[in-house]
Specification:
This protein has 453 residues and is of the alpha/beta class. Helices cover 44% and strands 16% of the residues. It folds into two domains: 173 residues, Aspartate Aminotransferase, domain 1 (Alpha-Beta Complex), CATH 3.90.1150.10; 274 residues, Type I PLP-dependent aspartate aminotransferase-like (Major domain) (Aspartate Aminotransferase, domain 2). It has a seven-stranded mixed beta sheet with strand order 4-10-9-8-7-5-6, sandwiched between helices. A four-stranded mixed beta sheet has the order 1-2-3-13. Strands 11-12-15-14 form a four-stranded antiparallel beta sheet, covered by helices on one side. The longest helix is centred in the C-terminal third of the chain and has 24 residues. The protein is globular. It binds pyridoxal-5'-phosphate.
């Protein structure tokens, strides 16, 4: 029963990013089944999953082709490694298919088990690259405040979450941060385009401060996801690209969320108009059906590693896991056959944007941001000047609570309410989701008024 599961859960399961005591007090919601865009909990309530699990279930739940691919591979060969100059057909075929769907500079992949492991690989690979280039002093990697790049020591260090840095003595040496390109917080006195240039130049300032000959790489999410769906101005990434080019610095795109159609192109760097040297992926590569991640390695780096690198002393037991790779193959082929990238770019993505734009009329909504099938709204106290609510009120969490009870998974990042629904959503599904969002905003507004917030 639900109560029994909750008791066992509270007794034994330490959940990620969770306050253990509050979980024990409230009991977790036990999710037992899913189909399409709908979850079912252990009490039989259906919940619209507007977060695609955790930004990953791009093709929606219950896709038989992925289940079949996993089952068949489990029967044939459940595991073999890639360490002993050995490989399995799914891993080889997936490497080739990834080379096909990623931008043309990418012909090689290094597999990992998750996005965090992918980003750890990035740190080691860029430092290895500069060693091989005879510039071992190039060690520093520049990232951004409020970025999320994973939870391993290197991933959390690359990330710019102060709460994570405060636990475990992070960041590790050689990782520094610049401010995020969040117009609402840092650029309201400028047009968005002007702000994009200003925010990109913070990178150049940091490069000059560190010393251009010491900087190895810059890493960023094309659209910051866990940070609250921070969509940068259109001028930002092309200017970042120019700055990296000017100083010869490697440019790394963390596509863990933005990959595999999420933004209306195969990869977020294509939507945002830049050309990375390395690209981390995970989540959408298998639509979350099994864990898999990795790094696409552009020719600039691959050539040096392959021709001059000798052995790269790095890898994971599950680098190229055959069952995960078989699922990824089926998933990517499904994205292709359903035309999901085009569906997001030309149909459901613009429709989601239109519906989110209309939310600006709601008394609580101070700003909205969208990019493909990612969207955010900002809850504000005063729409006229964007005055925020006192953070201690946790209004975002109040709104999230209403969503949860009303049968909608929407995430709160501070007072930014965010969605990243499965790419298979139809316009009718978007309408359904928007009805729920409206209802939850009204309930939140009623709370705010009742308490005089
Ligand atoms: N990079 C980004 C942009 C992410 O959003 C995440 C996870 O949310 C990660 C990396 C880490 O991926 P994983 O949780 O698979 O380690």
């Amino acid at each position: 029963s639900t109560a029994e599961w909750q008791a066992l859960d509270a007794a034994h399961f330490l959940h990620p990013f969770t306050d253990f005591q509050s979980l024990a007090a409230r009991g977790s919601r036990v999710i037992t089944k899913a189909d399409g865009i709908w979850l079912t909990d252990s009490d039989g309530q259906r919940i619209l999953d507007a977060m695609s699990g955790l930004w990953c279930v791009n093709v929606g739940y219950g896709q038989q082709a992925l289940v079949d691919a996993a089952t068949q591979q489990l029967r044939e060969l459940p595991f073999y490694n890639a360490f002993f100059q050995t490989a399995t057909p799914p891993a080889i075929e997936l490497a080739a298919l990834l080379a096909e769907v990623t931008p043309p500079q990418f012909r090689h992949v290094f597999f990992a088990g998750s996005g965090s492991e992918g980003n750890d690989t990035v740190v080691r690979m860029v430092r290895r690259y500069w060693d091989l280039m005879g510039q071992p002093q190039r060690q520093v990697i520049i990232s951004r405040v409020n970025a999320y790049h994973g939870s391993t020591m290197a991933g959390a260090s690359l990330g710019g979450m102060s709460g994570m840095h405060a636990q475990g003595g992070l960041p590790i040496p050689g990782i520094v941060h610049i401010q995020q390109p969040y117009w609402h917080e840092h650029g309201r006195h400028l047009s968005k385009d002007e702000f994009g240039f200003v925010a990109a130049r913070w990178l150049e300032d940091k490069i000059l401060e560190v010393g251009p000959d010491k900087v190895a790489a810059f890493i960023g999410e094309p659209v910051q996801g866990a940070g609250g769906v921070i969509v940068p101005p259109a001028t930002y990434w092309p200017e970042i690209q120019r700055i990296c080019d000017r100083h010869g610095i490697l440019l790394v795109s963390d596509e863990v969320i933005t990959g595999f159609g999420r933004t209306g192109h195969w990869f977020g760097c294509e939507t945002q108009g830049f050309r990375p040297d390395l690209m981390t992926f995970a989540k959408g590569v298998t639509s979350g059906y099994l864990p898999l991640g990795g790094v696409m390695v552009g020719e600039r780096v691959a050539r040096v590693l392959i021709e001059h690198g000798g052995e790269f002393n790095h890898g994971y037991t599950y680098s190229g896991h055959p069952v995960a790779c078989a699922v990824a193959l089926a998933n990517i082929r499904l994205i292709q056959s359903l035309g999901l990238v085009e569906h997001v770019r030309d149909d459901v993505g613009p429709y989601l944007a239109e519906r989110f734009e209309a939310l600006r009329g709601h008394p609580l909504v101070g700003d909205v941001d969208t990019c493909g099938m990612m969207a955010a709204l900002l809850l504000v106290k005063d729409k006229t000047d964007g005055t925020p609510f006192t953070p201690d009120l946790g209004l975002g969490m109040v709104c999230r609570g209403h969503c949860f009870r009303e049968g909608l998974i929407m995430r709160a990042v501070g007072d930014r309410m965010i969605v990243a629904p499965p790419l298979v959503m139809t316009r009718a599904d978007v309408d359904h989701m928007m009805d729920l969002i409206h209802r939850c905003l009204d309930l939140t507004l009623a709370d705010a008024r009742a308490h005089g917030w």
